[in-house]
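We emphasize that the prediction below concerns an isolated chain of 129 residues; any contacts that depend on oligomerization or on bound cofactors are therefore not represented. The input was used exactly as deposited, without trimming of termini.
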Amino acid sequence: MERIILFDGECNFCNQSVQFIIKRDPEGRFKFASQQSEVGESIMREYDVPNEVDSLVLIEGSKAYLQSTAALRICKGLKGFWKFGFVFILVPRQIRDWAYKIFSKNRYDWFGKQETCQLPSPEMKKRFL
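Result of the prediction step, given as a C-alpha cell string:
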C-alpha cells in the first residue's frame, strides 16, 4: 500500500518531522511531498483535500487522513516505541484535533518558517515525490 505524507515545506517543525520519520522508517514505506510543490498540489486535488487545510496529510491507500488522525497513523507505521502512540486514536477525534489545531496555529511562532527549500541528500531524495 502506498503511503504519502504531504507536509508544509515552509515549516521548520514539519521539515524536522520528515527527517524524524525517515530515521524511523528504514524500509522506506513513507514517501514525501511538500504541499507547496506541483506534485503535492496535484495529490491534494486528486484526494479532494481543501487548499486551506493547515495540517499534514497522510495518503494511505485510497484515503486521505488529516490532522491528529494522520499523525497517529504515521506513528503506527514507525519503528520503535513510537508505534504505541497510535493508542491515542482512542481519544475522541474532536479532542485530538482541537489540540492539533492549537499546535498547528502556533508552529511558525514556536519553530520558525523557512525561506528556502531544504535539499535532501541523494539517499533521501528517492523518498520524495
